[in-house]
């Protein structure tokens, strides 16, 4: 390590960084041509995931959501939203005001799920949810109304219809018996019926990424892509029905939940996988799953200087705080009791910046693939669209969003993409999915009624002609 002055608290320029540090970090650099290759591979995986016979072996699952339209601004009314994805769940009452073109979140309640219920029977879990929903309706004076409900259920499910979703397996510490392999909407409705003191209307199952797209779609009707970049990453978009081979019908569009976090799990990105990706994957809870580090602070034993072997520094919570708080690095290291000097802090900062830069560029390549697919699907020379986006990394990292947006512009110059940060995708977004489903159902009923009238008119006209 070169000898430099320690008299200033100012971060020193980069020349002090040793050749070995630069050698390691060079592995994370993805030039534009390599990003284009990554995008082309994802394009092939998207097509494989949409296929009727190729879906089962696809790394990118491309799950149909049965959401068949985005908001058009005419949605209105009162809705309930239920958000279950951890040890707490939320119940919300959402009012959509058409005249003001905005969603008003009226009120919400957070309910805890005790450990004994998390590990009990499915009936106990859904009875507990139904009881909390009952208390919330009482507090809002809504018991007399039968309101539609958007249900964000953040566990691995196979969705069969907008209101039918089969739990594949429990995660996040839940292990309620009698639920895996069953329709969670049906279980919720049965629990409400057992109570008998209120009822709910139609139910729409909502993925959190879809909720992000839909909450932004009410504010900006050109929003047809949803993206989350937080602890994990995922995206959804509006695909042409004719390309969704696993669902009957060719007319219109359907929102597809890509589950793009699985991209590379089949080894297709091995050429950009570093030795550090391999170590992190092998020591993770789920080896072989989500093998590329989209965003993670790694433990560079050979790279960082001795003071940074402190285990505390590499906990997830600390690493996120370190990356997000650019001006707080020294405070955090001091708080952890790590002896540091400006050179050491600069090295750690450089590692963080390099890894987050790779993450932003990978996300940009994936987003470019989806935007270009929409453009080609619609036969457009130029696409103008909006991405609804959420997640702590996108929201709080000091330069992640800027690098992602700049990279996307370079990769898909034929697409003009705006970005809109979501407001409560699992709450307002879930209500909006329900509102759109109701609007489409009403339109369908109106069409059926008018078709019947046309037939009657035609029969009357034929009778007149016979006379």
UniProtKB/TrEMBL annotation:
- Which positions make up the signal peptide? none
Give the enzyme's EC designation.
2.7.1.-
Q: According to the UniProt entry, which residue ranges have a biased composition of type Acidic residues?
A: 449-467
Query: SUPFAM superfamilies, per this entry?
Result: Actin-like ATPase domain (SSF53067)
Could you confirm whether the keyword Nucleotide-binding appears in this record? yes
Question: Which controlled-vocabulary keywords does the entry list?
Answer: ATP-binding, Glycolysis, Kinase, Nucleotide-binding, Transferase
**Involved pathway(s):** Carbohydrate metabolism; hexose metabolism; Carbohydrate degradation; glycolysis; D-glyceraldehyde 3-phosphate and glycerone phosphate from D-glucose: step 1/4
What InterPro entries does the database record attribute to this sequence?
A: ATPase_NBD (IPR043129), Hexokinase (IPR001312), Hexokinase_BS (IPR019807), Hexokinase_C (IPR022673), Hexokinase_N (IPR022672)
Q: Where in the numbering of this chain does the Hexokinase N-terminal domain appear?
A: 21-218
User: Which residue ranges are recorded for the region named Disordered?
Assistant: 445-467
Q: What class of enzyme is it?
A: transferase
Does the record's keyword annotation contain Kinase?
yes
The Gene Ontology terms for molecular function here are: ATP binding; D-glucose binding; fructokinase activity; glucokinase activity
Where the record annotates domain Hexokinase C-terminal, the positions are 224-291, 329-436
According to its UniProt entry, one GO biological process term is: glycolytic process
User: Could you state one GO cellular component term attached to this entry?
Assistant: mitochondrion
Question: Which chemical reaction does it catalyze?
Answer: D-glucose + ATP = D-glucose 6-phosphate + ADP + H(+); a D-hexose + ATP = a D-hexose 6-phosphate + ADP + H(+)
**Protein family (similarity comment):** Belongs to the hexokinase family.
- Quote the protein name from its UniProt record: Phosphotransferase
């Amino acid at each position: 390590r070169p000898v430099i002055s320690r008299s200033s608290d100012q971060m020193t320029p980069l020349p002090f960084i040793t050749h070995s540090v630069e050698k390691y970090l060079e592995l994370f650099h993805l030039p534009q041509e390599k990003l284009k290759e990554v995008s082309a591979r994802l394009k092939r995986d998207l097509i494989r995931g949409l296929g009727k016979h190729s879906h089962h072996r696809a790394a990118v699952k491309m799950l149909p959501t049965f959401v068949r339209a985005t908001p058009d601004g005419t949605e209105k009314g009162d809705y309930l939203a239920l958000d279950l994805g951890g040890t707490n769940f939320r119940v919300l009452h959402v009012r959509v005001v058409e005249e003001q073109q905005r969603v008003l979140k009226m009120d919400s309640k957070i309910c805890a799920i005790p450990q004994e219920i998390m590990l009990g029977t499915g009936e106990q879990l859904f009875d507990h949810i139904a009881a909390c929903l009952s208390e919330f309706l009482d507090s809002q004076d809504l018991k007399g109304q039968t309101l539609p409900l958007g249900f964000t259920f953040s566990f691995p499910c196979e969705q069969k219809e907008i209101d039918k979703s089969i739990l594949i397996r429990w995660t996040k510490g839940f292990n309620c018996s009698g639920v895996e392999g069953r329709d969670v909407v049906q279980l919720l409705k049965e629990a409400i019926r057992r109570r008998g003191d209120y009822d709910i209307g139609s139910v729409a199952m909502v993925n959190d990424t879809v909720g992000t797209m839909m909450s932004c779609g009410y504010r900006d009707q050109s929003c047809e892509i949803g993206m989350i970049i937080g602890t994990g990453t995922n995206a959804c978009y509006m695909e042409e029905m004719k390309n969704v081979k696993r669902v009957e019908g060719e007319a219109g569009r359907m929102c597809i939940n890509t589950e793009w976090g699985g991209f590379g799990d089949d080894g297709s990105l091995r050429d950009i996988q570093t030795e550090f990706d391999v170590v992190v994957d092998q020591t993770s809870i789920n080896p072989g799953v989500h093998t590329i580090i989209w965003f993670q602070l790694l433990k560079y034993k050979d790279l960082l200087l001795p003071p940074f072997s402190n285990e505390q520094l590499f906990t997830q919570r600390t690493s996120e705080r370190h990356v997000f708080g650019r001006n707080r690095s020294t405070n955090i290291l001091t708080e952890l009791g790590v002896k540091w000097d400006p050179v050491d802090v600069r090295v750690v900062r450089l590692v963080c910046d390099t890894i987050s830069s790779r993450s932003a560029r990978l996300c940009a390549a994936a987003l470019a693939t989806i935007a270009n697919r929409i453009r080609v699907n619609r036969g457009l020379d130029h696409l103008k669209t909006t991405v609804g986006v959420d997640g702590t990394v996108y929201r709080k990292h000091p330069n992640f969003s800027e690098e992602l947006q700049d990279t996307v512009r370079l990769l898909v110059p034929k697409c003009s993409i705006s970005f809109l940060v979501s407001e409560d995708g699992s709450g307002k977004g879930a209500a909006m999915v329900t509102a759109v489903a109701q609007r489409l159902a009403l339109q369908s009923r109106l069409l059926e009624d008018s078709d019947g009238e046309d037939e009657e008119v035609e029969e009357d006209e034929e009778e007149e002609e016979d006379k």
